[in-house]
Amino acid sequence: MSRFAPAANFYAVVAGAAEAGLVRVAREVVTVASRTVNDDTGAYDRSLRVEVDDRGVVAETTDRAGHIIEWGGGRQSPQAPLRTGAAAAGKFEPR
Asked: HSE of 45 in the Cβ direction (CA atoms, 13 Å)?
């Protein structure tokens, strides 16, 4: 009987192999989010980006009011563009 012993860098190899697919999904999230956000949000759609860093592959906004656009505020109802994009990509299950 043979035994499987994973390589010492197993997780790094797997993460590297998965990264291209994760970037494609994140790009889809950003594309749908940009299409679905209201025009009255200013530069929000231009602030959407895909970032690969120590957090992994991330679809995010750099807009300082992004949290209000996503979740709503005192006088604004939530638009949820990133959550809509994630749901469209089939990778989001709201709790």
From this structure: 12
